[in-house]
Amino acid sequence: MSENQVQIKKQVEFTKIWKFLPYLLVLLSLIIVIGLAFFHYESIERKITDTIAKYLDLKISHIYISGIENSSVEDVRNAIEVKKGDYLFSAKPNIIRQQLESLPWIRLAQVQRAFPDTLNIKIFEHKAIATIMFNGKRWALNSKGELIDTVDEQFNYLLELSGDESKDQAAMFFSLFSDWSGLLFFLKRADFIGKRRWNLYLENGTLVMLPEENVRYALKVLSVLDDQQKILDKYKIKIDLRNVKKHIIIDEKSNVL
Question: What is the mean pLDDT of the chain?
């Protein structure tokens, strides 16, 4: 191939590339625009929604909050951040939800904007089923054995857990009553004895001594006894189930305190 032929071939290839150059530039521009939009999405969205809100004059006139029982109203308001008179689109449901769910009592929050002027917030709190002393403070516990928040005497009606390592055993303890949840709410106190087993103190003063093993079986036996003899209705007695597969000791004269 001669030198002239080589040059002609290069010119032809260059001409072909040049024809596609505008399309390549357009593609590159689109990639840059999309990239900028991706990394600045929130900023762009905020500007667009704020502009729309200002143009339509969509301001918050009503904030409805339901489901608060133990949460601090002031903490909830601070977590919401927006207030009446703010533009409706300035309320970011996902951000508000995350801030609310960071509060100790709030398990789940639903946040919705309702046109033209309303913010609806529904709160689902943790259900406290017991209390426990931990690090020198009294805490409420949920059914998973998780610490919710520190509490005062208004929670004295709840079951109280005590004993070394009782906090670590709380979730497993609560699970024992999955087939007899009613009994759990008749308990005044549950002591974890020797890091091995539980003593149950009922509201009527009755003591139930559970075994280290076969606890579910022992509770089934107790349930049968109660169905047959209404044994849990008796006042200040001791029911020893520590060796339930061999014998059950019921002392009606113990006068348990």
Answer: 85
* Statement: residue 38 has pLDDT above 90: no
pLDDT of residue 89 exceeding 70: yes
Q: Name which residue leads in pLDDT, 101 or 49.
A: 101
Given a cut of 50, is residue 53 above it in pLDDT? yes
Residue 16: pLDDT band by 50, 70, 90 thresholds? low
Q: Find out whether 203 and 188 touch, Cβ atoms under 8 Å.
A: yes
Superfamily the domain 130-251 falls into: Cell division protein FtsQ/DivIB (3.40.50.11690)
* Comparison of pLDDT for 150 and 36, the residue scoring more: 150
Query: Does residue 129 have a pLDDT over 80?
Result: yes
What is the CATH T-level fold of the domain 58-125, as seen in this structure?
Ubiquitin-like (UB roll) (3.10.20)
Q: How far apart (Å, rounded) are the C-alpha atoms in residues 236 and 255?
A: 5
Type of residue found at 176: L
Q: SS3 for the chain, per residue? A: CCHHHHHHHHHHHHHHHHHHHHHHHHHHHHHHHHHHHHHCHHHHHHHHHHHHHHHHCCECCEEEEECCCCCCHHHHHHHHCCCCCCEHHHCCHHHHHHHHHCCCCEEEEEEEEECCCEEEEEEEECCCCEEEEECCEEEEECCCCCEEEECCHHHCCCEEEECCCHHHHHHHHHHCCCCCHHHHCCEEEEEEECCCEEEEEECCCCEEECCCCCHHHHHHHHHHHHHHHCHHHCCCCEEECCCCCCCCEEECCCCCC
